[in-house]
Amino acid sequence: MRIVLGVSGGIAAYKAVHLVRLLREDGHQVDVVPTAAAEEFVGRPTWEAISGRKVSTSVFSHVDEVRHVRLGQEADLVVVAPATADLMARVRAGMADDLLTSTLLATEAPVVLVPAMHTEMWRNAATADNVETLRRRGVDVMEPAVGRLTGADSGPGRMPEPHDIHAHLRRVLAEGPGDADPGPPSGAVTPSEGPLSGRRVVVTAGGTREPLDPVRYLGNRSSGKQGLALAEAALAAGAQVHLIAGVMDVPAPAAQDRLTVETVETAEELHAAVESAAAAADLLLMAAAVADFRPADYAEAKIKKTDDGTDPVIHLQRNPDILATTVRRRAERGTGPTVIVGFAAETGDAENDPLDLAQAKLLRKGCELLVLNRVGRNLVFGQDDTEIHILASFGVQGLLGDADPVHVVGTKQEAAQAVVDRAAQLISRRARSPYAL
């Protein structure tokens, strides 16, 4: 495929370098068309080296080739990443005052704009009107990510990560030209027909990080892969998903239709986020690996080694039990998720099998389902494959008609599908049953 990658003048231009590499690894020919402002952030030699193609910004370069028309005519896809507020305003107005905007005006290929700007600019009425108009004309304007912006600012407006953009572009290319919405394959389940259609699902993912001093922290090996797979499975089942992302080895997805993303770092931040989001949820999937303890005292300065060799003493205190607290508050208030799914990462010990420990944990926590992961240095954490058991509490085994744990060995996507299917089945049966929380 021939892809034109436009780059407008924002600090996020550096991310587009990695996007070019990902597209080229897929075998695409990529012509990079930066604006003059974009070259203030990333120079032309970088674009030419990474794309293997000549780069220009002016309609007066290679005039004999009529590049401002030819690029758009020959493209299978035109992408602008980052797309600044200024660039989108000019595209909306149909301006053609440089090679990039001329190409966008001349092309009949699918166009994807990837916004990147400060929150105030994204929320400005003029930008909102421009985005609405562009989408109405058939331009694919991605939702920006939520997170750290230039300086100390944080909020919606951050450019999505290259891997997320790449995945989105793959879907666009798979649809084919002139078929922006081909509809589901024959026999496929659409979101409006899925078992969680109309349901609100909260998913926690990744680990927590408990600061000890300005440079050190207590953490764990959670990669976040299982949580992301659960969010994807819930979306595929038709749910409205709120992902609470802790510290992860993989990037959190960009917010999109039916998906919102909230980032946290510590167990206390995760606790507050769950308490807020779970109140209106139908299903809570607690896949995050929460640190059981945190330093009792935070050192404002880096803890130094002493000359006399004395070892420092670090006092720990318990973090809140988010799962048990959420279950208890649901019972006290009579509101909250219909189904709460806990996760147990167990190694077992000389006296106890991991499955026995998980059964005991399910009883203590009071949730409906509990997913057991057998973990260790080379098991589950960071891996793409997993082995899980899905346990049901005694009170709901009758509704499910199966007292034995569901055993899944496979990819984390397959495990996530099994968990979501089990939870959706329980929600459906509770809706038809007098069984109370």
TrEMBL record:
Residues 1-200 are annotated as: Phosphopantothenoylcysteine decarboxylase. Residues 174-198 are annotated as: Disordered. Residues 201-437 are annotated as: Phosphopantothenate--cysteine ligase. It comes from the Bacteria. It holds the Pfam family DFP. CTP binds at D292, K302, P320, D321, I322, L323, F343, K361, K365. GO terms for molecular function: ligase activity. SUPFAM superfamilies: CoaB-like, Homo-oligomeric flavin-containing Cys decarboxylases, HFCD. Its cofactor is Mg(2+); FMN. Binds 1 FMN per subunit. HAMAP family: CoaBC. Catalyzes two sequential steps in the biosynthesis of coenzyme A. In the first step cysteine is conjugated to 4'-phosphopantothenate to form 4-phosphopantothenoylcysteine. In the second step the latter compound is decarboxylated to form 4'-phosphopantotheine. Catalyzes two steps in the biosynthesis of coenzyme A. In the first step cysteine is conjugated to 4'-phosphopantothenate to form 4-phosphopantothenoylcysteine, in the latter compound is decarboxylated to form 4'-phosphopantotheine. This is Coenzyme A biosynthesis bifunctional protein CoaBC. The lineage of its organism: Bacteria, Bacillati, Actinomycetota, Actinomycetes, Micrococcales. The gene is coaBC.
